[in-house]
Amino acid sequence: MNGRPAAVPDAVLARAEAAYLGLALGDALGATVEFMTPREIVHRFAHQGGVHRELIGGGWLRLRPGQVTDDTTMALALGASILSNQGRVEPLACAQAFDAWMRAKPVDIGNTVRRNLIRFRATGESAAPASEHDAGNGAAMRVLPVALATFGRPEAAVRAACRAQAHVTHHNALSDAACEFLVLAVQDFLRGDSLRQVLRQRIAPLLLEQPALAFRQRARRENPSGWIVETMQAVLQALVDGDGFENCLVDVVNRGGDADTTGAIAGMLAGALYGREALPARWLKVLDPAIREACAAQARRLVAS
Ligand code: MN
Ligand code: MN
After folding, report:
1. Using one digit for the tens of pLDDT, what is the confidence trace for 166-204?
2. Quick check: is 4 in a domain?
3. In a domain, 57, yes or no
4. Which ranges of the chain does DSSP label H, i.e. alpha helix?
5. What is the pLDDT, as a whole number, of residue 6?
6. CATH code (residue 280)
7. Residue 140 domain flag
8. Distance 226 CA to ligand 2 centre (A)
9. Pick from 79, 217, 263, 288: most CB atoms within 10 A?
10. What is the dihedral of CA 269, 275, 279, 285, to 10 degrees?
11. Which domain holds residue 81?
12. 10 C-alpha to center of ligand 1: Å?
C-alpha cells in the first residue's frame, strides 16, 4: 500500500525476518545475565571460558531456555496492532495494544512503561507528556515493527511513525533520536547497505545531533543501564567493533547490565545487517517455537504491508 511496489524482493524479506528473529534471540540470550556485572558473568561462566554464549534461560526471571521477555513481546504486540491497522502506526492503537499486553501479565515490564500505561488508562491520552526523565530504552527496544511497516516510505513519515509508537510511554528527545536512528538504520540494512555506509549516513549524523551518544572514543561501555545513552553506547560499540551476528550479540550481552535489551537492540540491527544465514542454528532451535513462528510471520507481513 501507499504506492510501494507490490512485490518486496526475497532478499529484503529474508533480512526483515533475520532482524525480528535477531531481536528475539538477543533478548533470550541476554535475559540470562540481565543485571549481572561483567565480573559476575565471567565467574558464573568460568566453565566455558568465562563467556555466556548459549540460550539456557534462567536469570533473575528464571526463564525457560529460549524464553523471551518484554522486549520481544511488546514488539509483537505493536506489530500485531500495526497489521490490524492496514500498516498504519497510530498512537491510540499502539496505546491500546500495549495496555492489552500489560493486562496479560507479561514476565517483566519497565517502570516508565508501566507508569505511562497506567496514565493512559486513567486519561485516555495516548501520548505521554514530554519528560526529560523518560530517557529509558523501553521505546527503542520494541521499535522494530515500525521499521518493517514503513519500509519504503518517505523519511519524514518514518520518523513520525517512530514517535507515534514511542510517545505512548517515552516522550523524550534522546529516546526519539535513538528510535528514529534504529528504524532508519534497519531500513538501510534491509536495502543492502553496508555497515560502513550506515556509519557514514546514519551513525555520524546521530552523534552530531546527540553528542551524548558518542561511543567510539570512550572506554568499553560495561554494565549498561536502562538509560538509552548507555544502552546505545554498548550496542553501537558491539555492532561497529564486532564481526558477525553471533560475535556481536555475545559481545553485547557479556557486558551485563540491561543485557536482554542491549541484546534485543543489537539483534535487530545485526540480524538486518548479516542476514538470515548468519543466525546460529543452535540458537534458533532453542528459541521458543511460538515466538520464533510469530516473529518470522510478522516480519514478512509487516514489510509487505
Ligand atoms: Mn526485558
Ligand atoms: Mn531489559
Report:
1. 999 999 999 999 999 999 999 999 999 999 999 999 999
2. no
3. yes
4. 10-31, 38-44, 70-83, 91-103, 111-123, 144-149, 155-166, 173-190, 195-198, 204-209, 228-241, 245-253, 259-274, 281-286, 289-303
5. 62
6. 1.10.4080.10
7. yes
8. 7
9. 263
10. 110
11. 10-303
12. 31
Q: Which of 292, 208, 281, 202 is nearest to 240 (CA)?
A: 202
Q: Could you tell me the three cell numbers for 240?
A: 561497529
- AA identity, residue 92: L
Q: Which ligand is nearest to the CA of 106?
A: 1
Which ligand has its closest atom nearest to the C-alpha of 261? 2
pLDDT range class, residue 139, cuts 50, 70, 90? very high
DSSP letters of 69-124? -HHHHHHHHHHHHHHTTTT---HHHHHHHHHHHHHT--S---HHHHHHHHHHHHH-
Nearest ligand, measured from the Cα of 257: 2
1 lies in a domain? no
Non-local CB neighbours of 240 within 8 Å, separated by 6+ positions: 195, 199, 203, 215, 216
List of residues 6+ apart from 28 with CB closer than 8 A? 55, 57, 63, 66, 67, 68, 72, 260, 263, 283, 286, 287, 288
